[in-house]
Amino acid sequence: MGDTGRRSTAVSPRQEPMEMPRLALYALAVCLLAVAAALVSFAQGSWLGVVWVLLAGLSSNMCWYYLKRGRAAQVQKR
């Protein structure tokens, strides 16, 4: 299921850490793995690395989207 945006612990208003939404973390992990796979693929002389580069671009856009959505939800909650 998706991230509900609820906090598990109470935090005082002065120390409000920016929590990264879970989906943004997953997208970031996929992006980093896709970049690593592209590098390995190109180092071996395979053109399959192009697919990995495209996947890295898609997942990085997803990461930015979920980060911005999480920040907007935090601002709206205040």
How would you explain this protein's 3D organization?
This protein has helices spanning 22-43, 49-77. With 78 residues, it is mainly alpha-helical. Helix 1 runs antiparallel to helix 2 (49-77). It starts with 21 loop residues before the first helix and ends with a helix. The model has no long low-confidence stretch (mean pLDDT 85).
The shape, in one word, is elongated
Total count of helical runs of at least 4 residues? 2
Mean pLDDT: 85
- Major sheet size, sense and barrel closure: none
List keywords for this structure.
78 residues, mainly alpha, elongated
How is this fold's topology laid out?
Blueprint lengths: L21 H22 L5 H29 L1
Could you give a quick summary of the protein structure above?
With 78 residues, the chain is an all-alpha fold. It has helices at residues 22-43, 49-77.
